[in-house]
Every structure is written in structure tokens, then in C-alpha cells.
Amino acid sequence: MGGLDKLIPCTVQVAKMIQKSGCDVLCIIDRQIPSELVEQFNEFRSFDKAFDSVVSCFKSQKLNLPVVYSPVPELSDYHDVRTYQQAAAKSLHRAIKAGFKSPLLLIPESKKFRNVELCTVLGALEELYVPIQLREDVPDKRQRIENLSVLISNPKAEEIVKEALVLESGRFVARDIGVGDPERMAPPRVEEYVNKLFDGLKVTVISDVNTLTKEYPLFAAVNRAANSVKRHQGRIIFLEYVPPQPAKKTLMLVGKGVTYDTGGADIKAGGIMAGMSRDKCGAAAVAGFMQIVKEQKPADVHVIAALCMVRNSVGEECYVSDEVITSRAGVRVRVGNTDAEGRMCMADALCRMKEIAVSENLPDPHLFTIATLTGHAFVAAGEGYSIIMDNSVARAADHARKLQDIGTSFGEPFEVSVIRQDDFDFNTGKVIGEDILQCNNLPSSRTPRGHQVPAAFLMQTTGLDKHGLESQKPLKYTHLDIAASAGEHPKMPTAAPIIALAKAHLS
Fold this sequence. Notes:
Layout: E1 11-14, E2 25-28, H1 38-47, E3 56-60, E4 65-69, H2 82-97, E5 103-107, H3 116-128, H4 132-137, E6 147-152, H5 157-179, H6 187-197, E7 202-206, H7 209-215, H8 217-223, E8 235-241, E9 249-261, H9 281-296, E10 301-312, E11 324-326, E12 332-334, H10 341-359, E13 365-371, H11 375-381, E14 386-390, H12 392-396, H13 399-409, E15 414-418, H14 421-427, E16 436-437, H15 452-462, E17 476-481, H16 498-505
Parallel strand pairs: 1-6, 2-4, 2-5, 5-6, 9-10, 9-13, 12-16, 13-17, 14-15
Antiparallel strand pairs: 3-4, 7-8, 8-10, 11-12, 14-17
Helix pairs in contact: 2-3, 3-5, 5-9, 7-8, 8-10, 9-16, 10-15, 13-16, 14-15
GO molecular function, one term: manganese ion binding
Keywords: Aminopeptidase, Hydrolase, Protease
GO cellular component, one term: cytoplasm
């Protein structure tokens, strides 16, 4: 796969038949089993009632091959394709634990889930990811296995695997940035990583503190304490893909990249700071999406992205509650809680995207923010689910429902929330001299509509609220809160929701 080799966890090949695959273990996840195994499976079922509900490992004498069986459960109307992805991951986990290095995964067919082959391969690849620091520090452990073979009956097997590797390369990038500890993926190190990766895209990095203070003042406030430590200094990294043909639509994505979130002056107490290096998974997802764009090279889709990389440090220079800061759009924002830094670090970059969309008259622009933003999203949606919030223009295009349907079919489920007038009213300034109150003093999980309110804030502080359905320049805007889907420490980052976004907007 050429340049993808460094962005996939091992070599991957399509096998034509079991006997000539060169594998050292056969992994089966469905009850569509080779004829040579039918008698043995029936024998096991005769004395083991748990055979079709737990992972097992045994030797097939007829195939002269070890077998790992990770069964998919009986499917109800409410299961989705993640069932197959999880079974594939469990099968490989068991094979690795047993010491095998070259598994062959039998990819099932399914009338219930039309993308089962692609999703099953992706589920297997997700299990094989090795964190960037382990790969760099202990090269002997850079791979969990040497080779993955897949047997797919679909005549388009080669195309399915090729697509899986392109999508996985994006998830690989997102996981690298997301999983890196606060030093390995501090803002300057993310810049370094991105510059090496995206040589084919236009990369513009804003790091000068005076420029940030003047043009991205809300971001600069969050960056203030970190800026005193050179290796922690903030970066806004713009990436741009220009298609070979005239663009029919424009995607503009802004990602929250808080490399470590202490909470700032409103410090996270009670042991809840651990894991806050994952607060950059929104920007990580944006970077992963751009890797897919780079590989797919859509003919008529223009893509501009911004990674807002900043550390929310605490110290003598940190911003504090009660400060009034004027945003890039000229909105006076009073800080209510320094732990609401995510909306601060993205707002000015989002405003810049709005300006580009309007001034350059870009075709069919759609703006996005992607962020691990609120604990409320975790409580409201539950682990594994992203939340979509469309503004009025995107909602009129039925964007959220379409993205939700696509996400479900590719194993990245969404819940849809609606932004309402209440959310804008909540943010309205409370005293003379402030236009917007950045945050209240309760955790988002204890704040009614705690994940919708920040979406309204992002619209109000950037002027996007002036680009609704009845305006001279309506702009589609979607906020994705991925706090519940990005992957909670100590689990690996998931890279959600980049596959759904790629399928919805690049296909």
C-alpha cells in the first residue's frame, strides 16, 4: 500500500483459501464456518452450552490448524454492525494472547448489515493498534502481529481491504495524536508530526504569541500559562486540501486539541485530572480525517481544517474567571470557569473559517467543530456515542439524521440533539459590559442542556448566529461532541467519528 505502510498496524493481505493462506491460526466470528469444522463445532456444542457465547481456542485436526472462535451473539432488532467489529477484535485479542503472529480472519456475510465486511476488517485493525510512544521507545513491540490475512467471499474483496486500509490510516493518525501523553503530543510535537505527515497538503502554523493574542484572543487566553514553557506553547495548525476539479462543496473543520487539561485556575480536583491528555481527540479526529482526504483525493471537495492545539495549564500567567476578553468577532466574553477552555480554544479559529467562507464565496460551505467537550454528552448519550448538533441551516438540509444513519451503518453511532433558543439565552451576558458569559460554575453534567449550551456559545462568539436561514449568507454549521465516543482512558482512542464523516461527505 505504499505510503500507508507506516499508518497501518501490520501487513494485510486477502487470502483466497484457508490451506494456502500461510496463517498460523484461523479466526472465526460467525456461524458461517468451513465445512471441515462443522462436525467438530457440533461436537463441542453437544457438551458445552456456552460454546456459542464465549471465546474459545482449539486445534482442528482436519485443517491441521489452531482455531479461535469468537462468536457473534444471536442478533436482535437493536444490534448494529459493532457486534461484528467487537467479535473480530476479541478473536484477534485471543489469538495474540495465545502467541500467534499470522492470523487468518474469516469475514462473514450479513443480510442485516450491508457494510459488514468493511466494518469487520476495521474492527480487527482497531485491536492491532500499538500506541506511538511504545512503537518509538520499544521498537521490538511496534507490532502485535506480523501479518493479518482476511478471507472474504465478496468478489470485491480487494477493494474492501484497500478501502479499509485508507480509513484505518486516518484512524491510526487520530489515535497517535489522541493517545500521546502530554509531552509526546504537546502542541509543538503535534506540529512536527503533522508536518511530516501532510507533505501533500498546504500546512499553515500560527505560533507567534503576538499574532495569537491579536487574532485569536480566546485561544490566547487559554494558552497564556502554557506559553511560558517553550515545549508547551500553543499552535493553531491549518490544513488545506484543494481538489483537482472546481469544488462543489467545502468542508471546514475545527478540532479541540487540548493536550492536557488541568482545568486551569478552576483546577480539576478529586482525582479527575488523570486521563486529560485525551482532551485533544477532537483535533486528533480532524487530523485523521485529513489523512483520509489526502489518500482519497476527492475530485470536487475542498477541505480546510484547523487543529487548535493548546495546554490548559495552571500557574501565575493563567487566565481566570471574571476576565472579559473580546473574541475575534468582536464579542465581549466574560470568563465564568477556566475549565470550559474547549469552546474558548476553538471559537476564534471557527470565526476565521466563517470569514473565509463568506469573503471567498466558497461553494456550499459546511463548518464543523469536533471536541471532547462536555461530561454532559457522556451522561446524555452514553459511552460510545457521538452527539450531533446542527444549526438551523444544516438542520434544514436534514444533515444530522443523514449522518446518524451513515454512522450507524459503519459502526460509529450518533445521537441527535437540537440547539434551541434556551441555549443562546443561557449564555447571554448578565451585567453591563459583557455580551456573553462563557460558562456557569456547575459541571456540565449537572447543568441542564449542558452539551447544547456550548454549541450556542460557539455560534454567538463567532457571529455564526447571524448566518441563519433568513440571512444574506446562510451557513451550515454542525457541532460534534465526542466526549463519550473518543475513548476513555485507559482504553485506546477510537478515532470516532471520522469514518462516518468521510462516508457522508467525501463519497
